[in-house]
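User: Let's play a game. I give you a shape written as tokens, and you guess the letters that built it. Ready? Here's round one.
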């Protein structure tokens, strides 16, 4: 039976159940899952354990932290021992609806990991020597705080940097940095999703899509979304529902991913040619007149485009249509076929499917092609072009701007914008980069662009995750460049080995966070909480510090940042302490209790009422249920008429942009989140006039969907101002006769980058990353299945095993970045209470040596059974843990989006004599040359800024500085601290 037939049967079974009047789970899951304990009995629930023994549990919700989806979890806390026995799904969570992937329940492995870091550790030898001593939290906090205080007092704010991988929260730490007055936020985003974000942001002023899969007729994915895309579990279940209804799924993936196996149409293009196919589909819609003419007329900025680029023609919509026709006429199916290697007839078939979707076209591109290629941001721009042509924007079954499907409540204190610009993260060469140029940091430091006095890494492992990790090792071991490196992490990682302090932070069930992500057409908040703290409080105990319930001295970051900030400014003279003071107890320290109580009581519409209906306070409600749905069916916000109360002393710019002097609405989600410039007289953007009515529109400079980007045109890139095709750095014309393309961007569905650590269930499921190689290439190269292969990049090579499979396009190889963990051989010893400096279930033990910039890594052994408090560690049967390929990649910054372009041009050969599995070699001198080469593609702000600023003010920036800091100066700007 095929999947659609199964889906139809499931739907019919549900309908039968409803008809019989049987009980559906009443919570947000809205589905019939009899296995969910009714929430009225969560205080005392009896279940059978794996040995069929009845156990009494208190069920406490929290949020998974093992990917960005933030699915709900329910911790089963044994009522007799007050320990967590297992994690299951939380049916009260509107996004994940009670379901999890394998990584959710594996949170338990992380809690009980015998190798986890339980106490603050301080380096006792050279950085990287592997010697650690346990220190108190007080010692670590005082040392770190005094260095930060000094840097601030000496007006060197750019020497403080916080570098985060997975934030897992909405804005807490950005506000911490803002309160310190530093532009010190650094993220991983430019090695992840900036390419796609740039493509979306240039269209709609919001940088992420929120497809309404559940209502779609056609779903077009440029990613492996069913198994590993952004928000993949909540999305995958809605895609599956849509398929059961009969929706068609189209997948672009050079590799036969699990997602591709479920597609109605699977296209395996040459890497980097995806935009060419999308443009051919767009052209088909245009040439055949099957686009939503009225939507395009009303919502595209075509008039602005004509005025700027075709001033001599009449500014009529009909004239624009003629030009549009001509612009895309060359993107034929044959052109796309020649670029992509996909048959023209297949592309034509897919184009017909898209044309038939109308406003029910849900599309998504994440990482994948947008993260792999030079110009990858155009993949997202061309994909969203299809939505914009069909009018499938914020429609049922269409694609929403993400900001309308999430909710960020107002916190108790809101510090102002930092008055400073940090060129180590926002260098002048990349004025349009969507996020911090984080992966170039080692090169900037080596070039003398700055020095770090205090450098935090948090849930981030750049030595392993980023390209060119050995350049990171070089700067992290140089105290002249990095004064103090503090690693905030629950588990050992390759970057933490080179830290000065390792501070143990809680897993997903040991910390507080608040989040909301776009997973359907609705808005919700989820509450991550330390489940043992919540359980003890429910039993009447008072807990004042999360360390009182966590294992060892594991803390949580909310309390850590509050305490650190208090110590940075103990008497309040720096103006920092006020952001950490209680409102209820003036002059005293804010508690996390009060922080969240304030938000839930004052800033989440509907929550106080919903809580009161159950006789609960809002915080109590969130502690009990873990999530709250604020609204569903948000709809097309851009079409809303702006109420008269928001319009005062309005001014109207050319093409209909309307500005107002009325204050912004109090509800932060009443309007889109981006901040286009106000007008010259200080008014703020209010909306855009469409056919005589002022509508909310989009947060772009024009207020419309920007088919033509004035920003690109004015900031040095006029040739890319329209959705178009940029040939990738791995285009066939760039390859030598013996070269291939390596795809390294794909995830393994059951791994978690590096923070999974010893998640034993997951490591047993997936623990290697062989090289996907087509049989034709294997024959040509003389490589047998399972044979050792040397993959040579621009700066080195790695040695891996071949997996010969027809699931990859000939001429292309692929290797998942999700494996290849390592720990250094050497003295080892993780300090008191620690068995070893590294996760022994997932990391090989290696020797790492350098001769000048020539680095070599060889493994001593893979993983082995070992004795620990967990008897399962003696049952480890796998020895392989994969190969670390990212060390052999140089940086490839896209000059517009700033995204690292991951795809590599490589030579693949049988392993040479003396090569061993897992060998890695890399030359950091060549890596720096590659960096300099790519830097030459840039068009920097100094030459191309149209207005003397560093960056268009309207573009999103996490932790946006004050406007003054945007002015270009000879020296990095350090303005006086605000009062
Ligand atoms: S998709 Fe899986 S890993 Fe991600 S949050 Fe949900 S349960 Fe956790």
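Assistant: Ready! My guess for every position:
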């Amino acid at each position: 039976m095929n999947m659609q037939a199964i889906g139809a049967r499931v739907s019919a079974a549900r309908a039968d159940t409803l008809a019989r009047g049987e009980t559906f789970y009443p919570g947000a899951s809205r589905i019939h899952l009899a296995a969910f304990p009714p929430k009225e009995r969560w205080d005392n629930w009896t279940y059978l354990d794996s040995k069929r023994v009845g156990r009494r549990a208190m069920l406490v919700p929290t949020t998974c932290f093992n990917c960005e989806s933030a699915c709900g979890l329910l911790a089963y806390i044994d009522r007799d021992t007050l320990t967590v026995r297992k994690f299951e799904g939380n049916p009260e969570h509107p996004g994940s609806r009670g379901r999890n992937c394998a990584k959710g329940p594996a949170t338990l492995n992380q809690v009980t990991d015998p190798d986890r870091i339980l106490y603050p550790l301080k380096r006792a030898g050279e950085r990287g020597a592997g010697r650690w001593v346990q220190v108190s939290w007080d010692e670590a906090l005082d040392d770190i705080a005094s260095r930060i205080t000094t840097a601030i007092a000496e007006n060197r704010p750019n020497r403080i940097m916080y570098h985060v991988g997975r934030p897992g929260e909405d804005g807490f730490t950005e506000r911490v940095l803002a309160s310190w007055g530093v532009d010190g936020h650094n993220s991983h985003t430019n090695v992840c999703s900036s390419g796609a974000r740039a493509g979306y942001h240039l269209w709609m002023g919001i940088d992420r899509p929120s497809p309404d899969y559940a209502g779609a007729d056609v779903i077009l994915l440029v990613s492996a979304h069913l198994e590993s895309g952004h928000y993949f579990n909540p999305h995958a279940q809605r895609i599956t529902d849509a398929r059961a209804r009969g929706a068609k799924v189209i997948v672009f993936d050079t590799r036969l991913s699990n997602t591709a196996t479920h597609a109605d149409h699977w296209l395996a293009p040459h890497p980097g040619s995806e935009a060419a196919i999308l443009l051919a589909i767009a052209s088909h819609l245009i040439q055949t007149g099957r686009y939503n003419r009225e939507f395009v007329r009303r919502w595209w900025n075509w008039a602005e485009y004509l005025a700027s680029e075709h001033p001599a023609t009449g500014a009529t919509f009909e004239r624009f249509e003629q030009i549009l026709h001509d612009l895309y006429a060359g993107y034929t199916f044959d052109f796309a076929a020649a670029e992509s290697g996909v048959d023209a007839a297949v592309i034509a078939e897919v184009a017909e499917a898209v044309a038939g979707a109308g406003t029910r076209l849900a599309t998504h591109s994440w990482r994948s092609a947008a993260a792999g290629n030079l110009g990858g941001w155009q993949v997202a721009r061309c994909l969203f072009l299809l939505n914009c042509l069909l009018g499938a924007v914020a429609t049922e079954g269409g694609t929403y701007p993400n900001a309308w499907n999430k909710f960020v409540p107002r916190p108790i204190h809101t510090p102002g914008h930092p008055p400073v610009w940090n060129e180590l993260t926002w260098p002048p060469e990349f004025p349009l980069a969507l996020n911090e140029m984080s992966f170039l940091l080692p090169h900037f430091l080596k070039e003398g662009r700055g020095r770090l006095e205090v450098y935090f890494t948090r849930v981030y492992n750049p030595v392993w995750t980023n390209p060119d990790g050995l350049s990171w090792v070089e700067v992290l071991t140089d105290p002249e460049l990095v004064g103090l490196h503090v690693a905030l992490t629950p588990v050992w990682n390759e970057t933490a080995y080179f830290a000065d302090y390792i501070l143990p932070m809680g897993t997903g069930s040991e910390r507080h966070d608040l989040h909301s992500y776009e997973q359907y057409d609705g808005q919700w908040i989820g509450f991550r909480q330390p489940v043992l703290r919540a359980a003890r409080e429910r039993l009447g105990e008072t807990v004042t510090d999360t360390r009182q319930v966590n294992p060892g001295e594991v803390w949580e970051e909310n309390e850590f940042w509050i305490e650190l900030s208090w110590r940075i400014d103990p008497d309040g003279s720096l103006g920092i302490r006020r952001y950490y003071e209680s409102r209820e107890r003036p002059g005293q320290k804010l508690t996390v209790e009060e922080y969240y109580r304030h938000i839930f009581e004052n800033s989440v519409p509907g929550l106080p009422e919903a809580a009161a209906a159950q006789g609960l306070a809002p915080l109590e409600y969130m502690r009990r249920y873990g999530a709250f749905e604020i609204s569903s069916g948000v709809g097309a916000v851009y079409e809303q008429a702006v109420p008269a109360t928001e319009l005062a002393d309005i001014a109207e710019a050319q093409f209909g942009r309307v500005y107002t002097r009325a204050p912004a609405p109090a509800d932060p989600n009443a309007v889109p989140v981006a901040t286009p410039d106000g007008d010259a007289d200080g008014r703020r953007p209010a909306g855009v006039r469409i056919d005589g009515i002022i509508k909310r529109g989009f947060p772009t400079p024009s207020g419309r969907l920007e088919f033509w980007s004035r920003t690109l045109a004015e900031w040095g890139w006029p040739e890319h101002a329209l959705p178009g095709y940029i040939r990738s750095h791995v285009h066939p014309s760039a390859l030598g006769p013996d070269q291939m393309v390596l795809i390294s961007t794909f995830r393994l569905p059951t791994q978690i980058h590096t923070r999974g650590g010893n998640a034993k269930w997951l490591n047993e499921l997936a623990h290697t990353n062989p090289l996907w190689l087509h049989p034709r290439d294997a024959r040509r190269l003389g490589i047998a299945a399972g044979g050792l292969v040397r993959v040579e990049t621009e700066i080195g090579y790695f040695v891996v095993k071949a997996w010969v499979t027809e699931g990859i396009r000939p001429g292309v190889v692929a290797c998942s970045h999700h494996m290849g963990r390592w720990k250094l051989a050497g003295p080892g010893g993780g300090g008191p209470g620690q068995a070893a400096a590294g996760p022994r279930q997932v990391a090989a033990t290696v020797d790492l040596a350098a001769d000048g910039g020539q680095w070599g890594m060889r493994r001593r052994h893979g993983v082995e059974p070992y004795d620990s408090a967990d008897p399962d560690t003696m049952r480890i049967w796998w020895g392989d843990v994969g190969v670390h390929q990212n060390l052999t990649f140089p940086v490839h910054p896209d000059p517009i989006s700033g995204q690292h372009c991951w795809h590599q041009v490589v030579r693949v050969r049988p392993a040479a004599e003396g090569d061993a599995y897992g060998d890695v070699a890399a030359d950091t001198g060549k890596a720096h040359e590659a960096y300099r080469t790519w830097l030459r593609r840039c068009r920097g702000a100094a030459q191309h800024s149209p207005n003397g600023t560093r960056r268009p003010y309207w573009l999103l920036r996490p932790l946006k500085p004050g406007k003054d800091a945007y002015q270009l100066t000879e020296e990095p700007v350090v303005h006086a601290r605000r009062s």
